[in-house]
Amino acid sequence: MSKSKRNKAPASAASAPPSSSRQAAAADRLAAGTALRDKVPRHAQRTWKRDSTRVDPLAILRASDKGRVQKLLPVRYGRMLQSPFAFYRGSAAVMAADLAKTPSTGIRVQACGDCHLMNFGGFATPERNILFDINDFDETLPAPWEWDVKRLVASFVLAARSNRLSDGAGRDAAVACAASYRKRLREYSEMSPLERWYARISSTDILEMMPGKRMKDRVEARIAKATSKGGSDLAFPEITEMVAGTISIHDNPPLIFHPGAEELQGEDFLTVAQYNLNAYRESLPNDRRLLLDEYRFVDAALKVVGIGSVGTWCSVSLLMSAANQPLFLQWKQARQSVLEPYAGKSEYAHHGERVVMGQRLMQPATDVFLGWATGKLGHQSYVRQLRDAKIKPLVETFDTEMLTVYAKACGWALARAHAKGGDSTKISGYLGTRDKFDDAMGSFAAAYADQAERDHAALKAAVRAGKIEVLTET
Question: What are the tens digits of pLDDT across the range 168-201?
């Protein structure tokens, strides 16, 4: 046999250049996504129709009251009563049940689970850079990608109505959000795995999207204020007081308070908090344990946060360094994801770990103190710093132009998160390069916003009938 024949290898996929193999595999997944349009046409995604099998939304909400701090439930319902948008923010469990009945391609991602526009914003990375991204993962679970998109776009129609903007403005924002998601997801699908992993949306990216110098200056000022001090330094004068030479968290019931033994199965709250801190420490890697050990435990209190979380066991712990520099850790009870009855059980037995692992997968960077614990009273929780340079969107001030800009930013962030935890190429194949899916999301958003308004009206009727007690905050 000649040397040339002996060295000649048969052509095969294995011998093809790696880049060619990757391109072929990507083309196959893109084609597979495109083929899904036959099974689930993109225009079918616009549909929302209430049917006779729909469970009473108030029954779903009342079922979720089980295990919550009962005296805080009037606060929860009082906050949800404020507007249809507020109701929507607190009723992720209701929409999860509804989304399970909507068309789906069957492609799963690591989903946020409560993907509305108020759960996005700015935060500081461990390197102290400000990024824009999703910032709430209480309900995270592998689930159909459409569920996050649909919850997000509907929130823009409700926000527009809450701001007394036109329905056209809300629908346009929903369409812009979906279009941004589609276009950015295509970009991420063309990146290498490492490029996707390292991708992030910086404060500079957000500033470049601002409509005009005035809005850009306002956002820059908010970033400067948020980064002028650490989150714990900013929170310290707001929620602490000095009594007889001792620093403690200031009680402001029912929003922040030290619970009594009657609420803690006879236990002393500070003893419980210290036990929980020690249990949480075990979830941290060794370097973070050493960092945590630079601080001593001083005080803790229960703290009401958000809307959907009100009544769950949420608390804040105050720790101090040797030089009396504060560190606030926020504890949030982690319960079963609202998606679990419809998307399947989590692979993590501990729901605090489920939240932490989902957040680490979806976010580009996470808090150095992110961890989890099972508390002395049996509550599963996850832990992070309180308000570490967190920048919340001032949605109530948005006009039509700003709402659309923000919609594009949220669509971008959701695409980045889904690209890290799902098959972005296959989803991109389904979405395509035209606006059919975007228009479908505009229609769905308007139809589901109408549903949220009907559900909010049902809550108002139940309150008027004395079936649900509310506490209105001043």
Answer: 999 999 999 999 999 999 999 999 999 999 999 9
User: pTM higher than 0.70 for the full model?
Assistant: yes
How many residues comprise the chain?
474
Give yes or no: residues 70 and 195 share one domain: yes
3-state SS assignment for residue 318 = strand
Is the separation of the CB atoms in 317 and 74 below 8 Å? Answer: no
Judgement on whether residues 245 and 120 belong to the same structural domain of the protein: no
- Quick check: is 20 in a domain? no
End residue of a domain, out of 385, 413, 441: 385
- Whether 303 is covered by a domain: the verdict is yes
Considering 363, 385, 407, which residue would you say is the last residue of a domain?
385
Q: What percent of the chain has pLDDT over 70?
A: 93
Q: Measure the CA–CA gap between 70 and 315, rounded to whole angstroms.
A: 16
Based on the domain organization, do 274 and 349 belong to the same domain? yes
Peptide bond before 17: cis, by omega within 30 degrees of 0? no
Cα(413)–Cα(30) distance, rounded to whole angstroms? 22
> Could you tell me if 61 and 89 lie in one domain?
yes
Quickly list DSSP for 158-194: HHHHHTT--HHHHHHHHHHHHHHHHHHHHHHHTS-HH
- Residue 12's pLDDT is 46
pLDDT at 111: 98
Q: What is the span of the domain harbouring residue 282?
A: 231-385
Task: Please indicate, yes or no, if residue 223 is contained in any of the structural domains.
Answer: yes
Give residue-wise pLDDT tens across range 399-453.
999 999 999 999 999 999 999 999 999 999 999 999 999 999 999 999 999 999 9
Specify the pLDDT at position 231: 61
Name the domain count of the chain. Answer: 2
**H or E stretch covering 297:** strand 295-303
Contacts of 174 (CB under 8 A, 6+ apart): 153, 154, 156, 157, 407, 441, 442, 445, 446
- Please say whether the beta carbons of 231 and 390 come within 8 A: yes
Residue 293 within a domain:
yes
Q: Is 310 exposed, middle or buried (0-12, 13-18, 19+ CB in 10 A)?
A: buried
Shared domain for 256 and 206, answered yes or no, is no
How many helices (H) and strands (E) are present in the chain, helices listed first? 19, 12
Contact between 281 and 290 (Cβ < 8 Å)? no
Q: For residues 247 and 361, state if they share a domain.
A: yes
Based on the fold, state whether residues 192 and 273 are members of the same structural domain.
no
What is the DSSP annotation of 381-446?
EEEEESSSS-B---GGG--HHHHHHHHHHHHHHHHHHHHHSB-HHHHHHHH-SSSHHHHHHHHHHH
State the chain's mean pLDDT as an integer. 92
Residues 55 and 177 both lie in one domain: yes
Angle (nearest 5°) at CA 378 between 373 and 380: 40
